[in-house]
Design a protein that fits this description.
- The complex is a heterodimer.
- Chain A is α/β, with parallel strands linked by helices.
- Chain A is 35% helix and 26% strand.
- Chain A has two domains: 126 residues, P-loop containing nucleotide triphosphate hydrolases (Rossmann fold); 61 residues, no CATH class.
- In chain A, helix 2 runs parallel beside helix 4 and helix 7 packs across helix 8.
- Chain A is globular and about 50 Å long.
- The longest helix of chain B has 31 residues.
- Classes of the chains: A alpha/beta, B mainly alpha.
């Protein structure tokens, strides 16, 4: 009997004010994979992540290892790192990290490791509001990494990072995967997605147009040699 | 670490984070800065008027007996606190929750603290601490009054402080509820001020026979006035607590983002039903205690004890416009006191007929009708002493005409103007200093980590 996927979403719908934001989303994600949700701005990537993590109301179900998990209990399995959030702007970076470390029951060693790997040492003394965009993003990623949830949803993790920083974050996320974590990343830069993801979910207008490895998507689009960008254009 | 230890550690982390937020909240420090001169001015003026009043009635024991520091000093000083609670304190409370929505960290909070009600309670606790801190200028004023040789009847002061504490708790709950149902702190501020100002308006409405009069019991301000006159009412205390808990509950429901609007409405309706049940239960909590030194809100103790023996329903009808000065006096000196002693009393007003063309007044004008145990008595003498005599006659209780409790009054010829430098200069400077030290401490907290991280 085949084992259940780590995360499965069935018939997920989300409407706001009568307008359909997400329609009939069905997906499944295997453990230990990095999956990139790709789509243009406004495609519904963030809404999908927030629905899956239980932060937005929706129809349909979310299962973890075959068991339906109600929205209020998803924090036990899924942690969502939102984009464009400024946690506690007047607080210091370190006190903010300490706060999340306590709330997420992470160890001091783990915090030190994350600070070190995300090169946050230089800004620990600053207030969160004083951080540059890149550091703000790294702070958000560090909060995500502090969580112990087996499934980590990261919304635009490379937004605001330069190429070098992006490579560093890619390496960190690959290590997380190597440690058995499953990562779902919402990315609108296709090149970034191709750099890190094992599988892709193509989202447009609140629908999933296709999903799988690049090879599988090429097959689906009929572009045997096409890049991810070509495949995306062909399928949308 | 056990599960409980983890939970406690989380609550401690939340509490520390909220304290940092409070220190970083400008509106908190601005409120304190504004309060110093506001309280100072009210206090200095009150001392001046009190001394002046005492001087002008010196020798008149009856009038001196009405000179109470609670009415003359404490209440005017705390009127400045009231202004702060209505107009400034909401912004402090709004900030504590509003910052989460404004900058999006609510999305983290809902994940790291799935029981959002716990986070709300911690925030409410910190907001209450802010309120307690804001009492400093008013407490200083009372200490100065004491140092000047002024008299303070502490039980009455404690009741007044309890009232302001409950009022602040309710303001916090309103502020949190407003944040939960609005998109921005600015809108939340408007909603909260709408609540507090309408409460003020309703209090006025309660004093006049307007169409809003029926809703005057909803006025938080009117309920606060009870405590200000040193009257402890269990119903009011429970009412404040129930309203606060209900609003905090509503805030928790509306912050819960996973629920759709319909589900939130269902949960809110269920909570509303619980509140109605709680309100009905509270209405049975009939307990009043007058903590004023001169028992200005009650009959004398002997009469109260006698009145409590009346168990059958008593009905009183007054044929007067409730705004008529006689009715207002009778309400203050007799009816309001009677309501607090007798649970089973119904008091109604009948508007007298307009004088006819011949100028003839309604023969029932000013008539007081008593109904008790099948006996009806009517009297045109509307006065507390006479009313007690009639009740004595009808109920067989051993009531005497209300005897004024001998109260000496506490006149003081003092001048508080020399303390103006304290309220207008030293205290604000001290607050600025604490503000600056607190911010430095916050920065130091950030700065002291370079060697902790490894």
């Amino acid at each position: 009997m085949p084992s259940e996927p780590l995360l499965r979403v069935r018939e997920l719908h989300r409407s706001i004010g009568g307008q359909k934001i997400l329609s009939a989303i069905n997906l499944q994600i295997e453990a230990g994979k990095i999956v990139a949700i790709i789509g243009p701005n406004g495609a519904g990537k963030t809404t999908l992540m927030e629905c899956v993590s239980g932060l937005q109301p929706h129809d349909g179900s979310v299962e973890v290892e075959g068991a339906v998990v109600p929205a209020g209990a998803r924090h036990r399995f899924i942690f969502y790192q939102p984009d464009q959030v400024l946690p506690y702007p007047d607080h210091g970076v370190y006190s903010t990290l300490l706060f999340f470390q306590s709330m997420l029951c992470a160890g001091a060693d783990r915090l030190s490791e994350i600070i070190d790997r995300l090169k946050l040492d230089a800004v620990l003394n600053k207030a969160v509001k004083e951080l540059s965009r890149g550091y703000q993003k790294r702070l958000l990623i560090s909060i995500g990494l502090l969580s112990k949830s087996p499934i980590l949803l990261l919304d635009e993790p490379f937004e605001g990072l330069d190429i070098k920083q992006t490579k560093e974050v890619v390496a960190i996320l690959n290590d997380e995967k190597a440690n058995g974590r499953t990562l779902v990343l919402s990315i609108h830069q296709i090149a970034d997605a191709q750099r890190i993801a094992d599988e892709f979910l193509l989202v447009s207008d609140g629908k999933i147009l296709g999903g799988g490895t690049l090879e599988q998507l090429r097959e689906k689009s009929g572009l045997s040699e096409g890049s991810l960008e070509d495949v995306f254009v062909a399928l949308t | 670490m056990s599960r409980n230890d983890f939970a406690l550690k989380k609550i401690e982390a939340l509490f520390q984070k909220e304290l940092r937020e409070l220190v970083a909240t400008r509106s908190f420090w601005v409120m304190l800065l504004v309060l110093c001169p506001l309280v100072g001015f009210s206090f200095i003026e009150a001392v001046f008027l009190y001394a002046h009043a005492g001087e002008s009635i010196m020798g008149n024991e009856v009038l001196l007996g009405r000179l109470s520091p609670l009415d003359g000093i404490v209440m005017p000083t705390f009127s400045a606190m009231y202004l702060s609670e209505v107009f400034l304190f909401p912004f402090v409370a709004i900030r504590l929750l509003g910052v989460e929505k404004q900058f999006g960290s609510i999305k983290f909070l809902l994940q790291i603290c799935p029981k959002i009600s716990v986070a709300l309670l911690v925030k409410a606790l910190v907001a209450l601490l802010a309120f307690v801190f804001s009492l400093t200028p008013a407490i200083c004023a009372l200490v100065i009054w004491h140092v000047m040789g002024g008299y303070l009847y502490m039980p009455a002061v404690y009741v007044l402080l309890l009232g302001h504490f409950l009022f602040a708790l309710l303001i916090i709950a309103i502020a949190f509820f407003s944040v939960s149902v609005t998109d921005s702190p600015q809108t939340a501020a408007i909603v909260t001020l709408a609540f507090t100002i309408s409460s003020w308006v309703l209090e006025f409405a309660g004093q006049n026979q307007s169409t809003l009069n029926a809703f005057s019991w909803l006025s938080m301000t009117a309920h606060l006035r009870l405590f200000e006159s040193a009257l402890f009412s269990l119903q009011t205390v429970l009412g404040f607590i129930t309203a606060s808990v209900a609003l905090l509950g509503l805030a928790a429901i509306w912050l819960h983002s996973a629920d759709g609007a319909n589900q939130k409405l269902k949960k809110s309706s269920a909570l509303a039903i619980l509140v109605v049940v709680a309100t009905l239960a509270i209405s049975q909590a009939f307990y009043f205690k007058d903590f004023s030194e001169n028992r200005e809100n009650s009959f004398n103790a002997k009469n109260e004890a006698e009145l409590r023996k009346i168990t059958l329903p008593l009905k009183l009808n007054i044929c007067l416009d409730p705004n008529d000065s006689i009715a207002v006096d009778f309400e203050r000196n007799f009816l309001s006191k009677l309501r607090r002693v007798l649970k089973n009393v119904t008091i109604t007003y009948t508007m007298p007929k307009e004088p006819g063309k011949d100028g003839q007044q309604d023969p029932n004008f000013g008539q007081l009708t008593y109904d008790y145990n099948g006996v009806r008595l009517q009297s045109h003498d509307i006065g507390a002493r006479r009313a007690l005599e009639v009740l004595h006659m009808m109920t067989g209780t051993n009531l005497e005409g209300e005897v004024d409790t001998p109260y000496p009054g506490h006149p003081l010829k003092g001048d508080a103007t020399k303390y103006r430098y304290l309220f207008y200069g030293l205290m604000p400077a001290l607050i600025l200093l604490i503000w600056s030290v607190s911010l430095k401490y916050l920065r130091k907290q950030r700065g002291g980590v370079s060697n902790v991280s490894t």
